Amino acid sequence: MKRTLIATLLLTAGAAFGASPYDEPYSIITIDTIKPADYHLKPVFVNRVDGENSVQRNKHVVPPGDHEVVIDKAPQGGFHQPTQKVMRLRTEPCVRYNLAARVENSVTQDWEPLVRSTEPIGECAAKFKVSVR
Hints:
- There is one protein chain.
- Helices cover about 20% and strands about 40% of the residues.
- By secondary structure, the chain is α+β, with helices and mostly antiparallel strands.
- Strands 1, 2, 4, 7 and 8 form a five-stranded mixed β-sheet that branches. A three-stranded antiparallel β-sheet has the order 3-5-6, with no helix packed on it.
- It is globular and about 60 Å long.
Protein backbone atom coordinates (compact mmCIF):
# COMPACT_ATOMS: atom_id res chain seq x y z
CA MET A 1 0.00 0.00 0.00
CA LYS A 2 2.74 2.42 1.01
CA ARG A 3 4.82 1.65 -2.09
CA THR A 4 1.84 2.21 -4.38
CA LEU A 5 1.12 5.57 -2.78
CA ILE A 6 4.76 6.67 -3.05
CA ALA A 7 4.97 5.52 -6.69
CA THR A 8 1.76 7.42 -7.55
CA LEU A 9 3.05 10.59 -5.88
CA LEU A 10 6.38 10.36 -7.70
CA LEU A 11 4.70 9.86 -11.08
CA THR A 12 2.36 12.80 -10.46
CA ALA A 13 5.23 15.04 -9.36
CA GLY A 14 7.33 13.96 -12.35
CA ALA A 15 4.53 14.79 -14.78
CA ALA A 16 4.03 18.21 -13.20
CA PHE A 17 7.72 19.08 -13.31
CA GLY A 18 8.24 17.51 -16.75
CA ALA A 19 5.78 19.82 -18.51
CA SER A 20 7.45 22.55 -20.54
CA PRO A 21 5.96 25.63 -22.23
CA TYR A 22 7.64 24.37 -25.41
CA ASP A 23 5.52 21.16 -25.48
CA GLU A 24 2.60 22.99 -27.13
CA PRO A 25 2.48 25.88 -29.63
CA TYR A 26 3.73 28.98 -27.82
CA SER A 27 4.29 32.72 -28.15
CA ILE A 28 7.14 34.81 -26.77
CA ILE A 29 6.65 38.26 -25.25
CA THR A 30 9.95 40.13 -25.00
CA ILE A 31 11.52 43.56 -25.34
CA ASP A 32 12.67 45.28 -28.50
CA THR A 33 16.47 45.35 -28.42
CA ILE A 34 17.06 47.31 -31.65
CA LYS A 35 17.81 50.99 -31.08
CA PRO A 36 15.06 52.92 -32.89
CA ALA A 37 15.59 55.84 -35.26
CA ASP A 38 12.38 57.40 -33.91
CA TYR A 39 13.27 59.32 -30.73
CA HIS A 40 9.71 58.84 -29.46
CA LEU A 41 10.32 55.09 -29.03
CA LYS A 42 11.92 54.09 -25.73
CA PRO A 43 13.03 50.77 -24.25
CA VAL A 44 10.92 48.98 -21.66
CA PHE A 45 11.16 46.04 -19.28
CA VAL A 46 8.55 43.29 -19.21
CA ASN A 47 7.80 43.02 -15.51
CA ARG A 48 5.08 40.36 -15.42
CA VAL A 49 2.77 38.47 -17.74
CA ASP A 50 -0.52 37.24 -16.29
CA GLY A 51 0.74 38.02 -12.80
CA GLU A 52 3.88 35.88 -13.07
CA ASN A 53 7.50 36.97 -13.25
CA SER A 54 9.68 35.49 -15.95
CA VAL A 55 12.29 32.82 -15.38
CA GLN A 56 14.40 34.54 -18.05
CA ARG A 57 14.83 38.30 -17.89
CA ASN A 58 12.39 40.11 -20.21
CA LYS A 59 11.39 36.90 -22.02
CA HIS A 60 8.03 35.31 -21.30
CA VAL A 61 7.03 32.09 -23.05
CA VAL A 62 3.23 31.92 -23.00
CA PRO A 63 0.45 29.91 -24.62
CA PRO A 64 -1.35 31.71 -27.47
CA GLY A 65 -4.30 33.83 -26.35
CA ASP A 66 -5.12 36.90 -24.27
CA HIS A 67 -2.55 38.12 -21.75
CA GLU A 68 -2.11 40.97 -19.28
CA VAL A 69 1.42 42.36 -19.59
CA VAL A 70 2.89 44.71 -16.97
CA ILE A 71 5.55 46.94 -18.53
CA ASP A 72 8.07 49.26 -16.85
CA LYS A 73 9.81 52.25 -18.44
CA ALA A 74 12.71 53.95 -16.73
CA PRO A 75 12.05 57.61 -15.92
CA GLN A 76 14.12 59.98 -18.02
CA GLY A 77 15.50 63.44 -17.49
CA GLY A 78 14.36 63.79 -13.89
CA PHE A 79 10.67 63.25 -14.72
CA HIS A 80 8.66 61.17 -12.30
CA GLN A 81 5.70 60.02 -14.36
CA PRO A 82 4.32 56.54 -13.64
CA THR A 83 6.84 54.03 -14.87
CA GLN A 84 4.54 51.02 -14.98
CA LYS A 85 1.58 50.34 -17.26
CA VAL A 86 -0.63 47.37 -18.02
CA MET A 87 -1.15 46.26 -21.60
CA ARG A 88 -3.63 43.72 -22.95
CA LEU A 89 -2.07 41.56 -25.65
CA ARG A 90 -3.59 38.77 -27.75
CA THR A 91 -0.83 36.47 -28.97
CA GLU A 92 -0.85 34.09 -31.92
CA PRO A 93 0.91 30.71 -31.95
CA CYS A 94 4.61 30.70 -32.90
CA VAL A 95 5.00 34.50 -32.94
CA ARG A 96 7.48 36.65 -30.97
CA TYR A 97 6.21 40.06 -29.80
CA ASN A 98 8.83 42.81 -29.28
CA LEU A 99 7.56 45.55 -26.97
CA ALA A 100 8.59 49.19 -26.59
CA ALA A 101 7.14 52.48 -25.32
CA ARG A 102 6.05 55.50 -27.33
CA VAL A 103 6.58 58.81 -25.54
CA GLU A 104 3.86 61.07 -26.91
CA ASN A 105 5.08 64.29 -25.36
CA SER A 106 8.70 64.90 -24.35
CA VAL A 107 7.66 67.69 -21.96
CA THR A 108 5.19 65.70 -19.85
CA GLN A 109 6.78 62.29 -20.59
CA ASP A 110 3.37 60.66 -21.16
CA TRP A 111 3.88 57.24 -22.70
CA GLU A 112 2.02 54.19 -23.92
CA PRO A 113 3.26 50.61 -24.38
CA LEU A 114 3.17 49.15 -27.88
CA VAL A 115 4.14 46.12 -29.93
CA ARG A 116 6.99 47.50 -32.02
CA SER A 117 7.39 44.39 -34.13
CA THR A 118 6.42 40.76 -34.46
CA GLU A 119 8.35 37.92 -36.00
CA PRO A 120 7.64 34.26 -36.62
CA ILE A 121 9.34 31.65 -34.45
CA GLY A 122 10.49 29.23 -37.15
CA GLU A 123 11.38 26.39 -34.80
CA CYS A 124 7.90 26.48 -33.22
CA ALA A 125 6.12 26.72 -36.58
CA ALA A 126 8.07 23.76 -37.97
CA LYS A 127 7.60 21.62 -34.85
CA PHE A 128 3.84 22.18 -34.58
CA LYS A 129 3.16 22.71 -38.32
CA VAL A 130 1.69 26.14 -37.72
CA SER A 131 1.40 28.61 -40.57
CA VAL A 132 2.76 32.02 -39.50
CA ARG A 133 2.07 35.19 -41.47
